[in-house]
Design goal:
Elements: H1 13-19, E1 46-51, H2 55-65, E2 71-78, H3 81-97, E3 112-114, H4 118-122, E4 128-131, H5 138-147, E5 151-154, H6 162-178, E6 182-184, H7 192-199, E7 207-216, H8 230-236, H9 248-251, H10 254-264, E8 270-276, E9 291-297, E10 303-310, E11 317-324, E12 327-330, E13 335-338, E14 343-346, H11 355-368, H12 377-396, E15 400-401, H13 402-406
Parallel strand pairs: 1-2, 1-4, 2-3, 4-5, 5-6, 7-10
Antiparallel strand pairs: 7-11, 8-9, 8-15, 9-10, 11-12, 12-13, 13-14
The protein binds nicotinamide-adenine-dinucleotide.
Length: 444
């Protein structure tokens, strides 16, 4: 997030949006947000396109519509038409509960797009794009949205491999030049308790170590159906394939790892760890692990011990702990104590907010006021990279250095996107997928 008062704040909204489509220095003629988009039609409508109409995309679209601004959902894209239809139904259902948003839903048949290229048709129709597909596609979709000069809300993680991270970093730099607001769904940055703790982090002195947990039962499995191509099956059961999901250390545990990066004000220089799959061993479990334990080392020598586990019946905890020279911050408890255990600060849980809503409230308010306030993509990319670094460490069993990993060019995405194309990983004759083996799997 950047909170500098934008130079554009005093300009008219139309002017701001036009300018945000231009590269600094005027090197590229790209007023892509002009007539066809922002404020066209009615005077101050902010048009939204949703790309990736699953659970989170549907929720995010509703949150956008629930902001105070004059927002209109005008286009939707999903790889699968049934998912798009279900999402639209859910959004309409929400409108039944919440009549204020009914008039804000305007997605006729001609603005519903399915298939792998749906995003290319939906993005041009909007001023703000919500990107909520599985994370493997995020770099491609983010790059396109930035190219087209859109403001963006994108879910985490923002990439699943170093090549994707680099793509997002490059597009993030262009988004900054174009003054496009970008919010990433690492919502703890938008949550009151975390914000209050962050403001007071100096109470614990220098952070020398940290712990992060995402331990719980795990997530859904979408079983293979007769007639599905391998690509369709993996797209439906996306959690279990790294090119789509990044493994759960990336897909979920990124939240906790990102908090430590945020409070540390930097990213680890190396990682080593261990992991495997103990209960996630069926044919529908693809290739991901069910547990990882990673020791990340930051430039100042401080350590983050990170653990994530998806195993039913085990201790559940999703939390972070920061330990400093003078005390500790327990994020889940919302408390700061000194080294003797004396409480220095306690967050009042009655003042907690819904960060998913706040992300949209703040983003759309900034856009409506013509302010450039949010540039979350770079941190989103680097926290995604941190979690990928962890995966590379647990899969290989080696010490993996940040610089080598991020510059490795490792690219696990398919070369072709079509329902009949072969995904980058396919099952063997026995129906099982190859699994990383520490000590044998190599990255660098
Ligand atoms: N911030 C949070 O707390 C939070 C919570 C849940 C999910 N998420 C993130 O949101 C993203 C989506 O998760 P979800 O739970 O909604 O999954 P989901 O399976 O419910 O939805 C994903 C949707 O994207 C569609 N899709 C897949 N590939 C596509 C493509 N190339 N183009 C267009 N659509 C495509 C799928 O068909 C599906 O409808 C993930 O990155 C996830 O990590 C974040």
């Amino acid at each position: 997030m950047i909170h500098d008062a934008s130079k554009d704040a005093g300009k008219s909204r139309r002017e701001f949006v036009k300018n945000s489509g231009l590269l600094a220095g005027g090197l590229m003629a790209a007023p892509l947000l002009s007539q066809a988009n922002f404020f066209s039609g009615s005077s101050d409508v902010i048009k939204v396109a949703l790309v990736g109409c699953g659970g989170r995309g549907t929720g995010a679209a509703i949150q956008a519509l629930l902001t105070k601004q004059n927002v209109k959902l005008v286009a939707m894209a999903d790889a699968f038409r049934d998912n798009l239809d279900n999402s639209l139904k859910a959004i309409m259902g929400e409108a039944e509960e919440n009549p204020t948003i009914k008039a804000k839903i305007d997605v006729p048949e001609e603005r519903r797009f399915s298939g792998f290229d749906g995003y290319q048709k939906a993005i041009p129709l909007a001023d703000v794009v919500i990107l909520a597909t599985p994370p493997g596609f995020r770099p491609i979709h983010f790059e396109e949205a930035v190219k087209q000069g859109k403001h963006i809300f994108m879910e985490k993680p923002v990439a699943v491999d170093p090549a994707g991270v680099q793509k997002v970093l490059a597009a993030a730099a262009i988004a900054k030049q174009k003054k496009l607001n970008v919010v990433v769904g690492l919502q703890r940055h938008y949550q009151n308790s975390y914000r209050e703790l962050f403001k007071r982090k100096d109470l614990i002195g220098e952070i020398t170590s940290a712990q992060a947990w995402w331990n719980n039962d795990g997530v859904w499995v979408r079983e293979r159906k007769p007639g599905q191509t391998e690509m369709e099956y993996q797209m439906r059961n996306w959690y279990y394939f790294n090119w789509l999901c990044g493994d759960h250390i990336t897909e979920q545990h990124i939240h906790n790892i990102d908090v430590i990066n945020w409070f540390k004000g930097g990213y680890p220089v190396k990682a080593q760890g261990m992991g495997g799959r103990q209960v996630r061993n069926g044919k529908d479990h693809g290739e991901i692990f069910d547990h990882h334990f990673v020791e990340f080392t930051y430039a100042d020598g401080s350590i983050l011990n990170s653990q994530c586990r998806h195993i039913p019946g085990t201790m559940a905890r999703v939390d972070e702990l920061l330990i400093g020279t003078k005390g500790r911050i327990a994020t889940g408890a919302g408390s700061i104590t000194d080294n003797k255990g004396k409480q220095l600060y306690k967050f009042d849980s009655n003042t907690e907010n819904n960060p998913y809503q706040t992300e949209h409230d703040e983003l759309f308010e900034a856009i409506a006021k013509g302010q450039y306030k949010f540039a979350d993509a770079e941190n989103g990319a680097k926290s995604s990279m941190t979690s990928v670094l962890g995966r590379m460490a647990t899969y290989s069993g080696q010490v993996i250095e940040w610089d080598k990993a991020i510059n490795s060019g490792l690219d696990i995405m398919p070369k072709e996107f079509s329902w009949t194309a072969a995904p980058p990983i396919v099952p063997g004759a026995d129906g099982f997928y190859p699994i990383a083996v520490p000590g044998k799997t190599k990255y660098i």
